[in-house]
Design brief:
The complex is a heterodimer.
Chain A: H1 3-23, H2 33-40, E1 42-47, E2 57-58, E3 66-67, H3 69-81, E4 84-89, H4 95-101, E5 106-107, H5 115-120, E6 122-123, E7 128-137, E8 153-157, H6 161-169, E9 173-177, H7 180-188, E10 194-198, H8 199-206, E11 212-224, E12 227-228, H9 233-248, H10 251-258, H11 289-327, H12 330-344, H13 348-358, H14 368-393, H15 397-405, H16 410-440, H17 452-463, H18 466-494
Chain B: E1 2-11, E2 14-24, E3 29-33, H1 40-47, E4 55-60, E5 63-66, H2 74-85, E6 87-90, H3 102-114, H4 118-131, H5 147-159, E7 165-169, H6 177-192, E8 196-200, H7 204-210, E9 213-218, E10 221-226, H8 228-233, H9 238-248
Parallel strand pairs in B: 3-8, 3-9, 6-7, 7-8
Antiparallel strand pairs in B: 1-2, 1-4, 4-5, 9-10
Classes of the chains: A alpha/beta, B alpha/beta.
């Protein structure tokens, strides 16, 4: 064996070792997790502190310190194990996959004790009884029961019990929000008529707000439980024992009262009897594609509508910007340059938030679809303007001179000589942007648009078939973008006058 | 026909034209010679307003423009276009429009600027192509032509606007000898037909044969001017003699 191949073999082995080490889960769930927690001296609990009041959230007085009734509960729980509690921040609707990956030991974050969740992971006995609460504007009347919400636009938290309840009821114009704050903002902006959510959230956010009112009595009660991985039987038993102790010695009641979420419903915790969850065989969405593909395709229609309209806006607005920048009088030139720099230098996500949630503050209230098109279109306009600028400046100055010498004015020279030549130069980068737009458009789900990626996320959440749905979704994206590249290639070849 | 008075032009702080005077009759063919950087191309570019002179006055066929600053009002811009439309320009690097066919290169300006109907513009374009010996190349694209052919199309394109004066800015400098002869042949024919021409060139033989008058440019001024016989056989200035001895023994 020569030296080079020995070296490369050593490199390969080291790489494999690194990969093996890197793929080891944080809390090594092959071994006993309870053991690992004790050895580590810390209980890792997964939760989302963003909009997480009153469960776990940054203390408004001391933002570097977290508080919340679940935060205190985690401390009490960890104390029972003789360890410290350490929170691991994770997006709420991705807590279960993150637990399965091994990012933390337990989920303690308003996770509902539903058959769906119990099929995926093991769940402890409940530590809280929640109920659904309708929240409306103060001047709204008659929206007090679930049936009243039919035909109304109603906001819910993504993959919450409320979302499943509304979906099951049907006939409701459902708006799905990634966090708790945004839905109340839209309610006040008259974009939606009501918000349906777990009572503790309503008590914390809506009750102190003079513009909002808790409408009707809470209904559809359910339990929050702690989630652990299926095979962590020892940990589950320990957690159950700890919760029972905390219920019996009134520690739990004390914590809940501290955050104002204790009510008479919590009495049920004492005599809770677990129900047997019937096993459901796992779903292969690939095998059952006739049921799932149409749902995804419906999302894809929204994606196409969004991308095409936003790109049309970007192509036109970009042209205006570049003409201002290259041929405008001084103030227009500065304006165009500032536009490109500011749009390019700030995140699309923030721009969308400003358009959707910020503009209503000054009286401009766009619906989510228009806001999405405006946000994506104006963002991409900056990029198109730069593409055009590169294209226009690549045309030799002699071309403009020849046109002027023939008696054309500046605009005629631009229109008949420079722009047609620049067009060919800009087709590849503009096509590239168009394809990027197909994929980038998924970001608009943050302003309640339900497009392809959002549909994927929602279906994956309820079927847990990330792979099958992921393949189908990726396939749809590819089927959309590949024809666009073929079309651009053809166009480019058609305009290829100097190699004909 | 052409009257230029005291034309001054600087680029940044470098003065390129130091007050040039020139008068030319209709039908006269004038050749500008001189060392590189002496201002002859700049002079030509000022004549059709690709450059705006800092001072001086240009009159072509009754249209007068004062130097000083670029046109601002629409009236001044119209005046500039009037002056431009009196002259046709042929560039050293041809500057044909690569995205248009030969025929479209010639019809574009008459249709866009003068609003000529396509039919009429094409008929005239074909006549001009015949004149430069390229009627068969009408549907070709510039990239398919040799340099000499491209320059002949460029001449036809300039003629399509029916200028009173043709300005040639080193039209053969980037051509091989064979192509050069094709282009010079077309230019001779134009001169023979009585076209008023100003030609910036290093082709001394062409200057000797065709020019009614030769201007020797040096250091941004007309150093010497006269009929070709006088300039080439009996130059008055030391600089002219020096330049010509190098140019002819090249």
């Amino acid at each position: 064996m020569n030296k080079a191949s020995r070296l490369s073999r050593v490199a390969l082995y080291s790489l494999l070792t690194v990969l093996l080490l890197a793929s080891r889960p944080l809390s090594s769930f092959a071994a006993d997790t309870l053991e690992a927690i004790r050895n580590r001296g810390a209980l890792l609990w997964g939760a989302d502190a963003e909009g997480g009041a009153p469960y776990a959230y940054p203390d408004p007085q001391k933002p570097e310190q977290l508080v919340g009734f679940e935060y205190d509960l985690a401390d009490a729980l960890a104390a029972k194990f003789g360890v410290k509690a350490r929170m691991v921040q994770n997006q709420w609707d991705q807590l279960i996959p993150a637990l399965e990956r091994g990012n933390f030991d337990i989920i303690l974050n308003g996770l509902e004790l539903t058959p769906d969740n119990q099929r995926r992971i093991a769940m402890s006995r409940p530590y809280f009884v929640y109920a659904q609460q309708i929240v409306t504007r103060r001047d709204t009347e008659g929206l007090t029961r679930m049936e009243d919400l039919k035909g109304k636009s109603v906001g819910v938290l993504s993959s919450s019990a409320a979302q499943r309840l509304v979906e099951k009821t049907g006939g409701v114009d459902l708006r799905i929000y990634p966090g708790n704050v945004e839905s109340f903002r839209d309610l006040k902006a008259h974009r939606i008529e009501a918000v349906l959510l777990d009572l503790p959230i309503a008590l914390f956010y809506a009750k102190p707000d003079p513009a909002l009112v808790l409408s009707g009595t809470p209904f559809a009660p359910g339990y929050y439980g702690i989630g652990v991985r299926k095979h962590d039987a020892a940990l589950l038993a320990a957690v159950n024992q700890a919760i029972e102790d905390l219920v019996q010695d009134n520690t739990l009641e004390r914590i809940c009262r501290k955050y104002g979420v204790w009510d008479e419903r919590q009495e049920r915790l004492k005599d809770y009897q677990p129900e047997v969850v019937p096993e459901k065989k796992s779903i292969s969405t690939l095998r059952e594609w006739p049921r799932y593909l149409p749902l995804l395709l419906r999302g894809a229609v929204t994606t196409v509508e969004l991308s095409v309209l936003a790109m049309a806006l970007a192509v036109l607005a970009g042209l205006v910007v570049v003409l201002m920048r290259l041929y405008g009088i001084a103030p227009l030139r500065w304006l165009a340059k500032a536009y490109v720099e500011i749009i390019r230098g700030t995140p699309l996500l923030i721009q969308l938030f400003l358009i959707y949630y910020g503009l209503p503050e000054i009286g401009i209230r766009l619906n989510a679809f228009l806001a999405a098109i405006l946000g994506l279109g104006l963002n991409y306009a900056a990029s198109e303007a730069e593409n055009y600028r590169a294209g226009i400046q690549s045309i030799p100055h002699g071309q403009t001179e020849a046109a002027l010498a023939l008696g054309m004015n500046r605009w005629q020279a631009l229109r008949h000589v420079v722009l047609p030549q620049a067009l060919r130069v800009v087709i590849p980068p503009v096509t590239n942007d168009f394809i990027a737009m197909f994929k980038d458009s998924s970001i608009v789900s943050v302003i309640t648009m339900v497009e392809l990626t959002k549909v994927y996320g929602m279906l994956a959440m309820s079927t847990y078939d990330y792979i099958g749905l992921g393949l189908m979704t990726a396939g749809i994206y590819f089927a959309l973008s590949y024809p666009a590249s073929i079309f651009a290639n053809r166009l480019e070849r058609k305009l290829c006058y100097d190699r004909r | 026909m052409i009257a230029v008075e005291n034309l001054v032009k600087s680029y940044n702080s470098t003065r390129v034209l130091h007050g040039v005077d020139h008068a030319q009759d209709r039908g006269e063919a004038v050749v500008l010679i001189g060392p590189s950087g002496c201002g002859k191309s700049t002079f030509l570019r000022c004549l059709n307003q690709l450059e705006v002179a800092d001072a001086g006055r240009i009159t072509i066929d009754g249209v007068t423009i004062e130097g000083g600053r670029p046109p601002r009002t629409s009236e001044e811009r119209e005046q500039q276009r009037q002056l431009r439309s009196r002259s046709g320009m042929v560039f050293q690097s041809f500057n044909l429009f690569p995205h248009l066919t030969v025929l479209q290169n010639i019809t574009a300006a008459p249709m866009v600027v003068k609003g000529l109907p396509r039919q009429e513009a094409e008929t005239r374009a074909r006549q001009l192509l015949a004149k430069v010996g390229l009627e068969s190349k009408a549907p070709a694209y510039p990239a398919q032509l040799s340099g000499g052919q491209q320059q002949r199309v460029a001449i036809a394109r300039a003629l399509a606007m029916q200028p009173q004066v043709m300005l040639f800015d080193e039209p053969t400098s980037s051509l091989d000898p064979e192509s050069r002869d094709e282009v010079l042949r077309v230019m001779r024919r134009l001169a023979g037909e009585g076209m008023t021409m100003i030609v910036v060139t290093h082709e001394m033989q062409f200057a000797r044969d065709m020019a009614d008058r030769v201007l020797f440019f040096d250091g941004g001024r007309v150093a010497e001017s006269g009929p070709p016989d006088q300039i080439f056989s009996n130059p008055q200035h030391e600089r002219t003699r020096e330049f010509l001895s190098r140019a002819t023994t090249r």
